[in-house]
Amino acid sequence: MINQKLIEQEFSHLNEIVFLDVSSVVIPPKSVQEAYFGYTRDYIANFGEDVVSTSWALVHQTRADVASLIGADASEIGFVKNTAEGIGIIANGYPFQAGDNVIIPDLEHSSNLFAWIRLQEKGVDLRVVPSQHGGVDLTQITPFIDRRTKAIVLSAVQFTTGFYSDLYELGAFCSQQGILLIVDGIQAIGRLHLDVKAMNISYLACGGNKGLLATLGAGFVYCQSDITEQITPPYASYQSVRNHVKPPAITTNFRYLDWHIDARKLESGNLNYAGIAAIGAGVRLINQLGIQNIEQHVLSLDRRLRSALATTSLRIQTPVDPKHHSGIICIDYPQAQEEHVIEILKGKRIYATMRGGYIRFGLHAYNTETHIQTVVSALEEINALNSDSHTTP
Ligand SMILES: Cc1ncc(COP(=O)(O)O)c(C=O)c1O
Question: Could you state, in order of their start, the residue ranges of all structural domains in the chain?
Answer without folding.
Answer: 30-288, 291-391
